[in-house]
Design a protein that fits this description.
Elements: E1 5-9, H1 15-24, E2 28-32, H2 36-55, H3 61-69, E3 71-74, H4 77-80, E4 86-89, H5 95-108, E5 114-117, H6 124-128, E6 137-142, E7 151-156, H7 162-174, E8 178-183, H8 190-206, H9 212-223, H10 229-236, H11 238-252, H12 261-268
Parallel strand pairs: 1-2, 1-4, 2-3, 4-5, 5-6, 7-8
Antiparallel strand pairs: 6-7
């Protein structure tokens, strides 16, 4: 089962990057969102990334043009999915919205189409249950930014077929990514580990042990991380990170996953990070 034609649902922070990576691997991509403005915003982000690659001489002008020519932005989901081999969903982290999207997709897509959700925390098995293709439904969790991060988590739903898993794993290698396979479990691998050190870092700040700047600095200088937990939270979106913490705490009932007070208050104040111009740090 070879994946050639791909539809990415959601042109936002993750979706536009996923579409670009697929197009760079010579694949045909449809980038879909609910409004033309959102589609064009996603395409503009791709253009800016490619322009930066040209400036750094990471890509030729012809290569950048080829990438753009293989991505078709649209708001017409039915037309975008009429002959696709794989749909990658990258919309908001809301189970109701994801279920609705997959119900609609299930009625539109060919029988052979594989469904993949880019969710960071939500149950793949629960999403798959609203479709008639649970054997072709899995998680494909990319990391931010998709164009740079080389890992992808492949999450097996309860009824997924080995054929579908193999097809998506093969695709990952074609995209230049390294897949890690796991069972459907809260937070999968990466975010289950991430929640522990992020929550404890936030609690250190709550307790006044150190400033958030010094906690971030320690992670980078002691462990060679590119970002500390506060910087990463601001990048991902603190409201997204809080939803993840709440999901993990609700599912696993372990105190280590309970959200820290400073995190809760930042979200209540509407300070989500880079997207709002202020999180733990301030952005111009």
């Amino acid at each position: 089962m070879e994946i050639i034609r791909i539809c990415v649902l959601g042109a936002g922070v993750m979706g536009h990057g996923i579409a670009q990576v697929c197009a760079q691997a010579q694949l045909e991509v449809k980038l879909v969102d609910v409004e033309e403005e959102l589609v064009q915003a996603g395409m503009e982000r791709i253009r800016r990334f490619l322009d930066a690659s040209l400036e750094r001489k990471k890509m030729t002008k012809e290569e950048a043009g080829g990438v753009l020519s293989r991505i078709k932005g649209t708001t017409d989901l039915k037309k975008a999915t009429e002959d696709v081999d794989l749909v990658i969903e990258a919309i908001i982290e809301d189970m109701k919205e994801k279920k609705k999207a997959f119900r609609d997709l299930d009625s539109m897509c060919p029988a052979h189409t594989i469904f993949a959700s880019n969710t960071s925390y939500q149950s793949i098995t629960e999403m798959a249950a609203v479709t008639r293709r649970a054997d072709k439904f899995l998680g494909m969790h990319w990391f931010n930014p998709p164009q740079i991060m080389r890992g992808i988590e492949i999450i097996r739903g309860e009824h997924i077929s080995q054929e579908a898993v193999d097809a998506v794993v093969d695709l990952c290698w074609k995209l230049g990514k390294e897949p890690a396979i796991c069972k459907d479990s809260p937070g999968f691998i990466a975010n289950r580990l991430l929640q522990v050190w992020r929550n404890e870092s936030f609690r250190l700040y709550d307790e006044g042990v150190a400033s958030f700047q010094n906690i971030d600095k320690t992670f980078k200088t002691a462990y060679n991380f590119r970002m500390g937990p506060f910087e990463l939270g601001d990048l991902v979106g603190l409201e997204v990170a809080l939803a993840g913490s709440e999901t993990m705490y609700r599912e696993l009932r372990r105190d280590v996953f309970r959200p820290a007070r400073c995190h809760i208050m930042k979200v209540r104040a509407g300070d989500y990070g880079r997207k709002t111009g202020r999180g733990f740090y301030e952005y111009g």
